[in-house]
Amino acid sequence: MLRYLALRLAILAGTLLAASVVIFLALEVIPGDAAAFMLGLNAQPDTVAALRAELGLDQPALWRYLGWIGGALQGDFGLSYTYKVPVSELIGDRLWVSLPLTLYALALSTAIALPVGVLAAARRGGPADIAVMGATQLGIAVPNFWFAMMLVALFAISLRWFSAGGFPGWADPVAALKALTLPAVALALPQASILARVMRSALIECLGEDYIRTARAKGLTRGQALRRHALRNALIPVLTILGMQFSFLIAGAIIIENVFFLPGLGRLVFQGITQRDLMVVKNVALLLVFAVTLVTFLVDLAYAAVDPRLRAR
């Protein structure tokens, strides 16, 4: 188990290092000068040069990369070019919107998909299975921003049960969760459709294995064999999809936060791109990569918890 854990930690560190290089180089090759963009078209060359020196853009790329990574390891993400405040403060303020939204959507997706997938597998070929497969196919085909607009039209404009956008803050947790409900549902529905289909396929495959037939021969009903034996083995591919869904939810949040005017990391990245605030963009991108790789690492640990063969390595 220790060897397995050490290997996963090494993969985590290597992934973060490679991602940081890719992010830095991708922003380096973007045409244009951030200092000239901030000062406008009529800026004088000496003013642009002074701002480049102030922002550290006149240094060699290698030194800027090492300075950025060294600061990030110490929790110093630099100063925003646009807002003139530490990027860590901007991230911290908006993380309390994006992280609850992502976790809320992930919880909804899991709560919807697992029982629906189990139901479809248990009633394979029946009306319930056909209905689930049709609904999930629709959920996969329709993008989350379309779901978002339909939810706003129905529940915010027509029924007036929820607000159409904005975030009141966590001073009132009930109001905050209510403001995140429609965005979370819009994010969760497509992912729940994928997860339900994976759960159904994994369970159907497990129900055809020899150990299930042996359990049935010993007197277990189909439902008992499913719950006691097939369900645990079917969780391994489901855990893989759950880890992948976290990254999909983060990416989808960039669009959904702009639809619902939520002050989260998605809107911060969008604003940083439009304002060419590269310090904000690269630090938020690195943070999102870290979140995704950390979740992948936790999924690998969950594999070991579900599959005893991995713990023996």
From TrEMBL:
Ranges of residues in domain ABC transmembrane type-1: 95-299
Membrane-spanning residues: 7-27, 101-122, 143-163, 175-195, 234-256, 284-306
Gene3D superfamilies: MetI-like
One function term, GO molecular function aspect: dipeptide transmembrane transporter activity
Subcellular localization: Cell membrane
Family membership noted in the UniProt record: Belongs to the binding-protein-dependent transport system permease family.
UniProt protein name: ABC transporter permease
The species this protein was found in: Paroceanicella profunda
Source species taxonomy: Bacteria, Pseudomonadati, Pseudomonadota, Alphaproteobacteria, Rhodobacterales
